[in-house]
Predict the 3D structure of the following.
Amino acid sequence: MKEQQFKRTTVTAALPYANGGVHIGHLAGVYVPADIYVRYLRLRKQDVVFIGGSDEHGVPITIRARKEGITPQDVVDRYHGMIKKSFEDFGISFDIYSRTTSETHHKFAADFFRKLYDDGKLTEKESEQYYDEEAKQFLADRYITGECPHCHNPKAYGDQCEKCGSDLDPTELINPQSAISGSKPVLRKTKNWYLPLDEHQEWLKEWILEGHKEWRPNVYGQCKSWLDLDLQPRAMTRDLDWGIPVPVEGGEGKVLYVWFDAPIGYISNTKELLPDTWEKWWKDPETRLVHFIGKDNIVFHCIVFPTMLKAHGGYILPDNVPSNEFLNLENDKISTSRNWAVWLHEYLVEMPGKQDVLRYVLTANAPETKDNNFTWRDFQDRNNNELVAVYGNFVNRALQLTKKYWDGVVPACGELTDTDRATLDEFKDVKQRVEEQLDIFKFREAQKEAMNLARIGNRYITECEPWKVWKTDPKRVETILYISLQLVANLAIAFEPFLPFSSARLRKMINIDNFEWDSLGRTDLLTAGHKLGEPELLFEKIDDETIGYQLNKLEETKKANEAAAYKAGPIKDTVAFEDFEKIDIRVGHIKACERVKKANKLLKFTLDDGSGTDRTIVSGIAKYYEPKDLIGRDVLFIANLAPRKLMGIESQGMILSAENFDGDLSVTTILRDVKPGSKVC
């Protein structure tokens, strides 16, 4: 395979913005597949480093800081710690997880820029950018909002519309305004330094389109669509005050563009980890470089960053960039701004000990070639019907039967039957099948191959029925359980890259400290006479109440978003005051209230309207109130509507209610006690 030509592998995972936590979209797109791959390489005894860190200079960080009234450093300190701990608790096994505000990174990124500048690899260019005259500063794209020219979303950003997904230039926005002061920005000239991508287009075409046809279709296709057009110079500096200062004369008040700064963090973090040997991981042609990213970062990692490395000189270029597509949540796009996400730090509290369940489900639903969808019901089904009913069930049966019949000691293998041979033959190539998929970054298929082992084991133990055979042929049961236990041991190896926590527990149950990856597929992993540990359930069922809690949580988020986005509907046409005077609105006291039989929506009210004769009104608010909660209340009603029959009951008026944005009805009441029949004027 191609990777055997390399002595070592540098694996990077996209740097998350330190302005919020990590959600399942990040995990599925980047961190779970990256961790699976790194764990796999380590198991194969390959030389690998896994580099991660927080991106702490993005504009979203300054936006959050301004919103909360704190400094950008306060923001990144808070979220860097949260993100790092979440990754550690979830088993993402970085060799280093650092940050782009470190001294090492600041110096490294500044020196990198300075070399490009000194070597004449950057161009100086004057352009017009939006300027906030009230705040007295140039505006980054994310500091500009306005109406999207494509879908007319009124809250599009200067670089992207989150509603329709269109990439934008700030000058395309309709009615732009500053997110800082709310004022209308003006265009002013400013100077910045650009990376001339157009000068690198030919070698990029040859390197990617001819040299890397093995890249995933989504990665290759996006690169090709860019390279088929004329690449344009891209600014590597910005007029901001948060970031790494531009280290050249004339760079005052400017910082390195975050997409110049952030990928260099991979290199500076490696230097922080390995100060004396970092260069072999980034400059030795016998090192393989692999970037794990989401699809929104493809252009930067496949075109911009390689151009930076090439222009600098001396660096290796990425050998593969296995980017995933996006993961949706309950059929809706994950959005941090709308809080439509499953946050890792919350999941770890609400689902303690279930890191591997989420790892399994995200891998099974991995958006490797197209956008995919996460639902809590699917999460529950995969846990209960696959991890519990297949994998966990087989392990528990094999270990419990061994404990029952041989006091937890591995029995000897006797004469094999055709069923035994067929089962052994079925899983002998498991190592090759799993490796074939992992080597080409097909983690979903690789995990399926691992789960296949458990299916083979379950089928084998069900067909052999050792609990029945024991009564007539105990010797035969020894062989059945010996083979079953070999399958159990193989599962501990096969699932190690995918489900590290469960594999560690399983190794404890079979009393084995560690396995070599090369042992996968062997039928003598547990020798006769080996004492097993104490069996326990590897996975547990997740009940409807637990899933209901998560679904309710999302429903509350949806309601909060709808409330935040609420805008009153248009006012009806103007009516003459004389027409309004025709409506007689009165106060009524509710003496009795009951549901109307065979009508789910209707309540029957008995009102004291001050006339001395009770009034009956039927109202369609049964969905929103219990009758007992309304008795004794004073409400407003229209007294001079023509009566009409509803479900055979004559309704003599209309009780007034206000309709909320979500359709909820609220009966109108009064603030002070007044007599029934009082007019509303």
Summary: DSSP finds 20 helices and 25 strands in the chain. The CA atoms of residues 571 and 659 lie 14 Å apart. The longest strand covers residues 585-595. The chain has a mean pLDDT of 94.
